[in-house]
Design goal:
By secondary structure, this protein is an alpha+beta fold. It has six helices and six strands; from the N terminus they run αααββαβαβαββ. The chain starts with 6 loop residues before the first helix and ends in a 12-residue tail after the last strand.
Length: 187
């Protein structure tokens, strides 16, 4: 049986070729630009030759890329149409939430049954992974590093009045926070 490249890599290649930009294709596929670039590079490694000419601020299909886009794009569109035809009879809305564990356990999980009653076809993925996302960056630094206006209402009041002051050692911060929370403020 012949080996095939990953469908994700082919989809990434087709989107970059159609949109002419890694950034635009990444936004279309809900990926980061580096993740999309890795997928395209994986396809290029699989094929054994480059598919794009990379220029300053631009990416253009080369001759091999042109051949591949003409062969794969219609097939990928047909596959997408076939899957949509099968799944459109039972539409499922999907919602992916990345929340802090405390918020999930105290606010989100208790509200889910009423949301399920309102929207029975809604599928919810809740991610409480400890890795910070850019939108939650404030949640991963000591609260005293936050601007005063951004302290959430559920923040323990014992932490809201604390301040960090820079030490002479270049960037290390100490304050009157409880010892497990002492550390560095993100820049």
């Amino acid at each position: 049986m012949r080996r095939l490249p990953s469908l994700a890599a082919v989809e990434a290649f087709v989107q970059v070729a159609r949109l002419g930009s890694i950034k635009a294709a990444a936004e279309e596929l809900n990926l980061s630009s580096p993740a999309l670039s890795r997928r395209v590079q994986a396809l290029e490694r699989f094929i054994g030759r480059p598919l794009f000419e990379r220029r300053h601020q631009a990416i253009v299909l080369n001759e091999d890329g042109e051949k591949l886009i003409h062969l794969t794009a219609p097939l990928l569109d047909s596959l997408t149409d076939a899957i949509e035809a099968l799944t459109s009879a039972n539409p499922v809305m999907r919602l992916r939430l990345g929340v802090l564990p405390l918020f999930a356990s105290q606010r989100l999980i208790p509200a889910l049954p009423s949301l399920r009653d309102l929207h029975p076809s809604l599928h919810i993925d809740v991610d409480t992974a400890p890795t910070p996302s850019p939108g939650l960056a404030k949640a991963w630094m000591p609260p005293s590093c936050w601007p005063a206006s951004s302290i959430p209402p559920f923040m323990p009041t014992a932490w809201t009045g604390t301040r960090f002051s820079p030490s002479v050692r270049g960037g290390s911060f100490r304050g009157n926070m409880p010892s497990p929370i002492r550390g560095r403020c993100a820049k």
